[in-house]
Amino acid sequence: MAHEVTAARVRQVIKESSLTQAQFAVKAGLDAPKMSKSLTGTRRFTSLELAQIAELGSVTVDWLLGAERQLPALAARAPGAASLEVMQVIDRARRLAQFRSDLAFLGYEQNVPELPRLPERRRLVDQGSYLANQALAYARAKGIEPHEVRDIADAIEDAFEIDVAILDLPDHFDGLAWSDPEAKLIVVAASEIPARQRFTLAHELEHILAGDDQALIIDENIDDPERKKHPSEMKANSFAASFLMPEDVIREAAAGGALTEESFAQLSVNLSVSPSSLAWRLHDLRIIDRRQHEIFRRITMARAADLVGSVGDLAEWIAVSSRSRVPGRLVRGTLDAYTEGKATIRPFANLIGADPSQIRLSIDEAGVPLP
Predict the structure, then answer these.
(1) What is the Cβ-side half-sphere exposure of residue 313, based on CA atoms within 13 angstroms?
(2) Which PANTHER family does the UniProt entry name for this protein (predicted)?
(3) In terms of pTM, does the model score above 0.90?
(4) pLDDT per residue as tens digits for the range 30-53
(5) Which of 74, 298, 328, 336 is deepest in the core (most CB within 10 A)?
(6) Quick one: which of 13, 97, 104, 28 has its CA closest to 63?
(7) Using the 8-state DSSP alphabet, how is residue 171 labeled?
(8) Domains of the chain (ranges, CATH numbers)
(9) CB within 8 A of 299, min separation 6: which ones?
(10) Among candidates 316, 319, 160, 136, which has minimal Cα distance to 244?
(11) Under 8 Å CB-to-CB from 256, ≥6 apart: which residues?
């Protein structure tokens, strides 16, 4: 039955191309007799053949297979974004998810861990911090210490195999988490406020690892106290704080005595978090009192960097966080699929926004074997 659906859709693509079956086979780079056998049911299309047909016909492999994609669970942080702008962001995420779905069909699947979670009857903040500790243990087992990595997108991809994209998004749209059976994706905004971007990455990571099944959630203001009372947001914020500022690391850093403005600033810089977030975390762990919290939370990132002589590092971090980033694992996967003869060069070229013929020439010159 599934093969009949695929054959029917391939015939539809050929018909809409205004080419004969033989002409279509030649243009798609297929063997005409083999394609004829596949259309009559005596052989199956290979994954590469379907990729070539999909490319020429401007359709997806999923559509050729007759696979109706499930709507994803979505969670977003987008204060003040208009509905049209939100839909445009979702459409960009959908295209990235389609790349991942096509790779999964070719055998390049994500292996996102299912981590232990506390029962839902437990406090929301405890659920978030517990999941963060599980995530930290999982990352550390792979030799990754997230709190030591300033540009945490790579760490998330390497530890959890979740695709991470940093894009130019509408003003005040912080991020989005996409989760469907074949694609797990985090999209955050390129930003000149790197600590906020980093917190958002950790926040969206929780939504995926926790399996949050939410419709699109838009935060009118991510700092709005009412918004923070939403159950999923409470868990995600608790997770992000514990993930980026691990309790064992915090307590070790504070073991040398009372924190001064300089030692506090150094800890903020070392952890790549905002002073205000660190002040809340220290107060929550009862390492500092309310008076110290009030003092420390007023320190700006620029002031903290100046106190420890790292203004240049802060400027570099701002420059990095302001740039777009295509998911690294997705880039590697599409290139692997091409070099291993399972896909054409076009998905890789489309993903990085390059001309396919130029990319093919560059790969050829680099000595990468061509299929």
Answers:
(1) 15
(2) ANTITOXIN HIGA1 (PTHR43236), BLL7220 PROTEIN (PTHR43236:SF1)
(3) no
(4) 888 888 888 888 888 887 888 888
(5) 74
(6) 13
(7) T
(8) 1-68 (1.10.260.40), 73-244 (1.10.10.2910), 247-321 (no CATH)
(9) 261, 264, 265, 268, 275, 279
(10) 136
(11) 263
Cβ contact 246:137 at 8 Å? no
316 is written with which tokens?
């570099």
* 149 neighbors 169 (Cβ within 8 angstroms): no
Q: Taking the alpha carbons of 89, 94, 95, 97 in that order, is the dihedral positive or negative?
A: positive
Provide the 10 A C-beta neighbour count for residue 91.
9
Q: Which of left, alpha, beta for 185 (phi over 0: left; psi -120 to 50: alpha)?
A: beta
What is the C-alpha separation between 226 and 138, in angstroms, rounded? 32
Residue type, 193: I
**pLDDT band, very low/low/confident/very high, at 272 (cuts 50, 70, 90):** very high
Distance CA 92, CA 87 (A): 9
